[in-house]
């Protein structure tokens, strides 16, 4: 997988944690609730590695959500409604 891609706005979005910025990981309430007490670092890291990645484009502020089925980022833009 490439470590960058071109957003539709023309901004180069970097996807690795060393060069990238505005990279987030989605973790559900269910995943957090399933952690055993006391919470171990290994369990948190496992949850983080299995989580869905979301990247904000610094060029246009849209969101790119990693789609595990198509193995590509899907772009989401803010509705002006
Ligand atoms: Zn953009």
Describe this structure in words.
- The protein has 81 residues and is an alpha+beta fold.
- The protein has one domain.
- It is 19% helix and 31% strand.
- It has two helices and six strands, in the order E-E-E-H-H-E-E-E.
- The protein is elongated, with a radius of gyration of 15 Å.
- The N and C termini lie far apart (35 Å).
- The protein binds zinc ion.
Q: What is the terminal-to-terminal distance?
A: 35 Å
Helix-strand pattern, N to C? EEEHHEEE
Shape: elongated
Tell me which ligands are bound. zinc ion
The percent range for strand residues is 25-35%
How many H/I helices?
2
Tally of discrete structural domains: 1
Q: Based on helices, strands and strand pairing, what is the structural class?
A: alpha+beta
Arithmetic mean pLDDT: 90
Biggest sheet architecture: 4 strands, antiparallel
**Could you give the order of strands across the largest sheet?**
3-4-5-6
Radius of gyration: 15 Å
Helix content, binned percent: 10-25%
Q: How many strand elements? A: 6
